[in-house]
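#struct-pred

JT: dropping the chains for the assembly here, can someone run the whole complex?
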Amino acid sequence: MLGAPSYERDRCVTGIRGLDEILRGGIPYGSAILVSGTCGSGKTTLGMEFLMNGARAGEACAHFSATEPSVKLLENVRQFSFFDMSAVDQGLINVFDMDVLFSWLGLDKSTFNLDDIDAMVKAITDIVNTIGVTRLVIDSVTSLCYKVPNEQLIRDFLFKLGKSLSTLGCTTLLIAEITSVGGTAHRSAFGVEEAIADGIIVLGDVERMGHLLRYLQVVKMRGTDHSRAKYALELTRSGVMLTPMLKWGVSD
Amino acid sequence: MSINFDPDDEEYYGDMGSIGSVKFDRILTGTPLNTGSIPRGFSILASGNAGAGMDLFAKQFASVAEDPENTILVSTSETSNEILSVYRKYDWPTDIRVRTMGEEYNKEVLTRELAASRYRIEGFTLSDIQKLAQTRFVEQKNHDFLTDLATQVTSLGPYFRAVIDSLDFFYSRFDPARVTSMLRIMQAHAQRNRGLLLMTVSDQAVEKSTERELMAICDIVMEFEVGMRGSDFDTRMVIRRFRNAPENLAFITFRVTPEEAITPETVERVA
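RK: done, full complex below.
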């Protein structure tokens, strides 16, 4: 009789203080993780720190910016001591402006059809494959989904993207914008993103004794045990810092 | 705002401009005098089917070029060389201003579409990706040919002569309401500046409602037709509207001669 298997998936160590402990070692390689949060909750910073830590380990990383020009993104992230601009200069972190990519692909239009979605998925996959990207951030997947006219196509798009990137062994953070995390019903703008993703990390605000605190909670993570508790998220000059959140006084 | 016309210009240009053929002018004015037949300030719409001679008529109209600097031929389907060879063939002046918007469009838009198609099918090379990662802004590429056209025509001075061959290009690429609106601006400019504006449009290139608007904007509407009579082609021009001169409404058969290009043969008056 065979013994119980003790298989452990390889992990992509995020390097974000506290997160790898929550995830029991990191994100399973090749996963597509939805990082959902309200504005100002630290999604972009978390994404950039994830890439920077990969670049420090010599991994090729890519960032697709759809919500703000990359010039502005890089200017903003430079204030953090964790970020080293030389990683961009050396091509370890490749930052792409989504509108430039759309323009090159003839996708500068308001609504995408199935062919356009396929072209976008192929382009992202091509880039990941050609330069051997192992860490990818798409910021934000919500603004891409706004161009996709219906739920079924959004589902197709995310499924194809996740599958292609997973096949290439690329760990991906799909940043998603949500307006409120007060309830647990909506962790993404369109509702379908959370069903497709391998994992969901929610970032939001919680009021405690008159203060608005940022928190992070891992709601779902396929392929690993993880804590489902809320952790206080602090944005420091050296990056994201997660600490256990005491349960008393929480009024969310 | 009224325009003060130079008295010397008024004398030189006169009240009428030539249609591009002395014989046509004589038919329309009913006199043997060579005084031109189109009242200055008029806008003309030439419509018809392919092969009926509209494009040659457009060039012939522009060839009058009382002031070459103040004359423009905007072609949307021919290259500069093709236009030049026609002008040389008929010994028309070659110093008028020519804008080949079709050529420009092909260069700007189709080249980009071809590149997009290549990226979609073949994917990105490493050097493409490196260039993409270093490109921070989308190049300003949406050249608005319609605004460009309107700007170019309205920048012409008094007694200008402008030809747009053809409107099909604009109606197939822009919102028809916007195209018509721009044409109204150009028509008003022609009226105020005693200019002559000729526009061509193919049959069925526009909706009926747009066609009606075009006919309302223009002072003269002429249709070019081509048919078969026996084993010969029969080409004719139908003057359907001539503001303030209904006596000019006519069916005019014409032929193309090596000496005079479009030349009238028979005339049948409507009124």
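JT: nice. Chain A is about 30% helix and 25% strand. The two ends of chain A are 49 Å apart (CA to CA).
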